[in-house]
Amino acid sequence: MNKKLVLMGAGLLLTAATASAQKLVTGHVTDAQGQPVMGATVRVPGTKVITTTDANGNFKLSGVPASAKKIMVSYIGMNTATVSVAGNVQVVLKDNELGEAVVIGYGTAKKVGTVVGSVKKVGGSVVENKPATNVADALQGQVAGLNIANNSGDVGTTQNISINVRGVGSLSASSEPLIVVDGVPAGAAMLSMLGPSDIESITTLKDASATSIYGSRAANGVIYITTKKGRSNEKAQIHVSQNVGWSQLARSIGNPMSADELLDFQLENGIIYPQTYAYFKGHGANTDWQKHMFDNAAPLHTTDFSIRGGSEKTTYYVSASFLKQNGITYGSSVKRTTLRTNIETKAKDWLKFGIAQSIGFSENSANRFADTRSDNVNSPSTVAASWPRYWEPYSMKSTHQVWGTDSWGILFDPNYYVDAAPSKVENLVYNGTAFAEITPVKGLTLRSQLGLYAIGNRLKSVIMPSYAQLAGGGTGSAARQSVQSSSWTITNTAEYKFNVNDNNHFTLLVGQEGIKASYDEFTAQADGLLDDRLTNLSAGTVPAAASESNYKYEYLSFFGRADYDFKQKYYANFTVRSDASSRFGKSNRRAMFYSGGVMWDMMQEAFMRPASTWLTNLQLKASVGSTGNSSIGNYTHLSLSGNTQYGGEQASYYAQFPNSDLGWEKQIQTNVGLTASFFGKLTLDFNWYNRKTKNMLMSMPLPYTTGMSAMMKNIGEMTNRGIEVEINYDIVRTKDWYVNFHTTYSYNTNKIDKLFYGLDQWDNKGALISYMVGKGLNYYMPIFAGVDEQDGAPMWYKVGHSGKAGYTYNPETMTKDESQIESLYQDTGKKRFAPHHGGFGFQVSWKGLTLAADFAYVLGKYMVNNDYYLNTSSSAATQGMNLDRDALQMWKKPGDHAILPAFKYNSQFDTHLLENSSFLRMKNLQLSYDLPTKWMQATRFFENIRITFTGRNLFTVTKFKGVDPEVDSNLTAGNYPATRQYTLGVDVTF
User: Is 621 within 8 Å of 600 (Cβ atoms)?
Assistant: First the structure.
């Protein structure tokens, strides 16, 4: 009994001792201006004791060990403060130059509010946990002036994104922006090989003040991606996430007739005989080809792991990710593994060096029949909309032939074609940079950096012998392709920062950069494969072909930049860059590019102080400068010859005229911007720009008598002019609630100022486009005037006349003569490039629960719907294809107000195919929940657990009847459709 009392007493004493070993610390956190800081993190180093400040900047930190001497207070954009433990702590956080910094070029980063140029930084959280294989997809609608289009939903492809900044700046050269990852230029393929969880931020540089330092490659803007790094004096933080989900069609494809509707239509128009009608009717098939071709629950999953931290001198970030996703069509899939290491160390007070590198490997299997050829009847989209529903796919499994296709000859199940002709691509992408940085004297930083962007690509494709035999005899074939490319970049800079009288702040930068790139491709093919089990090239009995292609190019550049501000009130910068490129003729190989900009921070003026209670920020900026475009072929300026056979003998031919005067395409851009913040909640950014392209690189047509069809020259001029608006509004911001609304909008008009040969107009009928001085790129087609209600004939407006489609024929302005169709092409007034782009979204948070949504839209967009031609034309109907239900509204008798002419008339490529493809799309909807902090503290193991549910492309609003309105093209035919994803994820931080 006494022993039990002693033990109980000891337990009580131990409990009391433990209780007395913990204490409560309270405090108040403000910024340098004395304003409370809400959401600052307060923690005891080396423990799990953590809390955040409320709306008034106050905090209560319970459970603080008696042995604790310090607490750390941190907030994004401010320096972390370490203060002594006391009963009531007063903490002042100062701005951190790196917290809200953006990297806009070479040298050190700049604080957001001090950047003269037009830039927009997006945090990594925008792309994290988004179910897209390309990180650019999540940026759609997030940045005004950054236009992104997803051209294919096929996960087996990598080049499926179109990007431009502030419109299309060139007609023949590329209009894609320069992509930079951690200071190293990279190609568009890098966007599909980046792990979204590795991204710290993505910054878009838009005007000349921001981009001119990149000179030759920055005419179309710059997208600068910064990956995550470790943090000094922080223990290791481990993050693991797992996402699982599925994909499906984003929207239905077309509106095809049912089996009965098509049979009735075909019988009525004499396409089939009554006995054929009865045969298919009796069989009763009504195959839904869309369901047959597309998986409504294609699985996907991702796993991400990272560890970051650092000591006083060394920081590290190491990550790995794995993605596996099936496409919604048979045979389409991707498996991707990425690894990243970012390490920096300060070896001496004056020496810092580091390495940032990533390597990604992917296996892509694309449905090789999902292309956009108009004659590709096996495209999944074409099958879904155009194959008769009275056919069936599984009639004779041994031969894979579709039932009911006897009149078509041998026609196989489209999914069998994928097995019969498999194709797989393996991609290995490396992106790395190593640097050394010294500070020999105060303010002077010398930095040398070496970067490598390299790609290894292997393609293997086979046509199985068994398929060749089923298709009517013959043997199989195999093809291999190997591609290796690399781009080395060496950059050396010297940056010097100094002040004069504490009011004048200077930063001077000079640098040199060299780029050396190479590409090598080898392709081989062998025919005569006899066994499906033997598909190597060596198994072929007939060597078919082999080819090789390679090229090199180089750049050598020198640049400088000067930044100045007076009392952090008036800012100015000036940049200059000299570039030389091997892609141009010796007469114009080198060019100079300049830019200058100024900014006025009006809130620093004394006369603005009375307004500071409601107007918290007001900045006015302006810039002008030039950039260059060199995105053309590598040997376009040289005289080239080729080898061929002529009359059975070897021969050489003249392949290209030389042009030693070929030089840089230059763009001169002017930008005026205004940034304002109201009540610390509402932020408005407005920019107006004028982007003038001179010496435009353009493929100029040549007379056929020259033996050449075209020649690249500096011959044109073009202007892009527009406005950009961004609004961000924190509607509610309290301890428990956060409600935010954001929107972006851009308007861009494109105008051609000069063409070749002094022409005012150049018509490209093949592309249905016309280049017109004073206008731009407009669709060039016969203008459909409707269907004559009297005889059902199609009507077209004569050249010089236009209007809406109607039902009454006017011989003075219209014609019904199909033989004149080639002479009826004219300007339709519809622009090739949409002028309006934007997006909007919201976020609502209550304690740990968050709902966020993002939308993107494009207005004034038009595309030629070639699928509609195939699905409504009489020629397609007579071939036995299924038709769109609109064909049921063909003209039949006098007085009919029909949208399509009588069956005896064939459709033409006119404006009845030119459809409004403007759209509004919900890009992402995410619901997440962070488990309470107290629960995490109780575990003494977890820092945070977040559960997320995400939907992508949940709905689309559009009038476009084609597969997908988002495609960036003048014409669509058989495109791979956009997909919708649903994912459920768990993120755990230790």
Answer: yes
The whole-number pLDDT of residue 670 equals 94
CA distance 742 to 178: 26
**Which pLDDT belongs to residue 113?**
57
Question: Rounded to an integer, what distance in angstroms lies between the CA atom of residue 520 and that of residue 485?
Answer: 6
Q: Cα–Cα distance between 234 and 250 in angstroms, integer? A: 44
CB within 8 Å of 275: residues ≥ 6 apart:
none
Q: Which residues contact 555 (CB under 8 A, 6 or more apart)?
A: 216, 513, 514, 515, 579, 580, 581, 582, 630
Tell me the whole-structure pTM to 2 decimals.
Answer: 0.86
CA distances from 275 to 307, 732, 945 (A): 72, 71, 67
Q: Are 928 and 850 in contact (CB under 8 A)?
A: yes
Q: Which two tokens stand for residue 833?
A: 């490039």
Contacts of residue 273, defined as CB under 8 A and 6 or more positions apart, other chains included, come to: none
- Identify the band that residue 114 occupies on the pLDDT scale cut at 50, 70 and 90: low
Structure tokens at 264: 């009735």
Q: How far apart are CA 484 and CA 51, in angstroms?
A: 51
Read off the amino acid at residue 254.
Answer: G
3-state secondary structure of 889: helix
Distance of CA 263 to the CA centre of its chain: 44
Place of tokens 């004096």: 233
CA dist 441 to 97, 351, 777, Å?
20, 11, 55
Measure the CA dihedral 720/723/724/725, to 10°.
-170
User: Residue 904 and residue 12: Cα distance in Å, rounded?
Assistant: 100
Residue with tokens 């839904």: 288
Contacts of residue 397, Cβ cutoff 8 Å, sequence gap at least 6: none
Closest alpha carbon to 218 in 723, 836, 664, 685: 664
Containing 468, the helix (H) or strand (E) segment is helix 465-470
| Residue-by-residue DSSP string for 202-227 | EEEE-SHHHHGGGGGG-TT-EEEEEE
| In contact, 364 and 424? CB cutoff 8 Å | yes
Locate 267 and state its tokens.
Answer: 């019988």
CB 677 within 8 A of CB 686: no
Looking at the DSSP bridge assignments, the partners of residue 884 are 256
455 is written with which tokens?
A: 């790609």
pLDDT at 331: 85
CB atoms inside a 10 Å sphere around CB 942? 15
3-state SS track over 847-884? CCEEEEEEEEEEECCEEEEHHHHHHHCHHHHHCCCCCE
Does residue 46 contact residue 72 with C-beta atoms inside 8 Å? no
List the structure tokens of 355. Answer: 């390495």
pLDDT at 14: 35
- Shortest CA distance to 692 belongs to which of 666, 728, 713? 666
Segment 505-530, tens digit of pLDDT = 999 999 999 999 999 999 999 988 88
Digit-coded pLDDT (tens) for 56-77: 778 888 778 877 888 888 775 5
544-568 tens-digit pLDDT: 778 888 999 999 999 999 999 998 8
Statement: residue 722 has pLDDT above 50: yes
What mean pLDDT, rounded, does the chain reach? 86
Can you tell me the distance from the alpha carbon of 906 to that of 819, in angstroms, rounded to the nearest whole number?
12
Q: How far is CA 325 from CA 160, 244, 302, in A?
A: 16, 10, 8
**What is the C-alpha to C-alpha distance for residues 300 and 950, in angstroms, rounded to an integer?**
13
User: Cβ distance 989 to 944 under 8 Å?
Assistant: yes
Are 587 and 670 contacting, i.e. CB atoms less than 8 angstroms apart? no
Give me 15's structure tokens.
Answer: 């409990």
Q: Which amino acid, 662?
A: L
* Phi and psi at residue 940, to the nearest 5°: 55, 25
Kindly report, residue by residue over 189-200, the tens digit of the pLDDT. 788 888 888 888
Residue listed under structure tokens 């194959």: 387
Ramachandran angles phi, psi of 649, nearest 5°:
-115, 155
Which residue from 853, 821, 963, 851 is spatially nearest to 250, judged by alpha carbons?
Answer: 963
Tell me the CB-side half-sphere exposure of residue 347, using CA atoms within 13 A: 10
DSSP assigned state of 327? -
